[in-house]
Design goal:
Number of helices: 7
Strand content: 15-25%
Strand order of the largest sheet: 1-2-3-13-5-15-4
Structural class: alpha+beta
Pfam families: TauD
CATH superfamily: Clavaminate synthase-like
InterPro entries: AtsK-like, TauD-like_sf, TauD/TfdA-like
Helix content: 10-25%
Low-confidence stretches: none
CATH architecture: 4-Layer Sandwich
Protein name: Enoyl-CoA hydratase protein
GO biological process, one term: sulfur compound metabolic process
EC number: 4.2.1.17
Mean pLDDT: 97
Number of domains: 1
Bound molecules: succinic acid
């Protein structure tokens, strides 16, 4: 992994595969151009970047996110009443975690999947509730030349249907529980993305399939797709491609969904956890 140098922020890598913690930045204040450019550079280099001890209002989080592009209002997961672009990801004590559990890339079932996700932690368990990330550029690089050739030009079909009609999802529709879903036609869509994408800034290739939303390969049957898809999803999340982010109150983490996929852990049933997520609109993937 390459470690570029930075003049305007401190950067400490989180693993040998991806992820870094950034210091010397107060995200409640407008960022100077040079500092913001270093943050963008760190995001491209490390895929997921965390900031500790940030005292942020919802508006501060939105303002930071707006530096990267326009913000999404999720078609299924209801946002906060006053801030529709913020999803309050609350997991109450005594209940298992179910939102974002399992490897995925946020909103890969959109025609233009989310460029980045920006999450701020308000309440975290004393231990547990970490989020795992896996570097999909590294996962691609570590494939053999033979399989890389097979994947060249291959298109995968992504769908929200299975994830958003699972038993734990169905109970969220129109619920007054901590996370509420609204019905959307988007779950009937079958969306095409290349299996190997190029990052629009660095040009680096990455695998772009995930166990939660990737359904089958275009022009392949489900039976034909299953073995290769299972292999790719298992390969993509091998532990040597991973880092683990340990949430603390007032941590903010941003990740680039074109570089990483992630999985929230369901290992803190006795505790509350409240995070706030915004996602930045992405572009069509090539
Ligand atoms: C998600 O955005 O997928 C959830 C992440 C988390 O709760 O750790």
């Amino acid at each position: 992994m390459e470690h570029p140098s930075f003049s305007n922020i401190g950067v400490t890598p989180l693993s040998n595969a991806l992820g870094a913690e950034i210091d010397g930045v107060d995200l409640s204040q407008p960022l100077e151009k040079a500092q913001f450019e270093d943050i963008q550079k760190a995001l491209c280099a490390y895929g997921a970047i965390g900031f500790r001890n940030q005292k942020l209002s919802h508006q501060n989080q939105i303002d930071f996110a707006l530096r990267f592009g326009t913000l999404e209002v999720h078609p299924i997961v209801k946002g906060m009443e006053e801030y529709p672009e913020i999803i309050r990801m609350h997991k109450p004590a005594g209940k298992p975690a179910s939102f974002g559990v399992g490897w995925h890339s946020d909103n890969s079932f959109f025609d233009k999947p989310s460029l980045g996700s920006i999450v701020y932690a308000e309440t975290v368990p004393p231990v547990g509730g970490d989020t795992l990330f896996a570097n999909q550029q590294l996962a691609y690089d570590m494939l053999s030349d033979g399989i890389k050739e097979t994947l060249e030009g291959l298109i995968a079909i992504h769908s929200a249907k299975e994830a958003y009609t699972s038993p734990s999802a169905l109970e969220k529709y129109d619920s007054d529980g901590p996370i509420s879903y609204t019905k959307s036609d988007i779950i009937e869509d079958f969306i095409e993305h290349p299996v190997v994408i190029r990052h629009p800034v660095t040009g680096k290739k990455a695998l772009y399939v995930n166990a939660m939303f990737t359904h089958h390969f275009k022009d392949w049957t489900m039976e034909e797709s299953k073995p290769l898809l299972e292999f790719l999803c298992a390969h993509a999340t091998r532990e040597e491609f991973q880092c683990r982010f340990k949430w603390e109150k007032d941590s903010l983490l941003m990740w680039d969904n074109r570089i990483v996929q992630h999985a929230a852990l369901n290992d803190y049933v006795d505790y509350d956890r409240t995070l706030y997520r915004v996602t930045v609109n992405g572009t069509k993937l090539n």
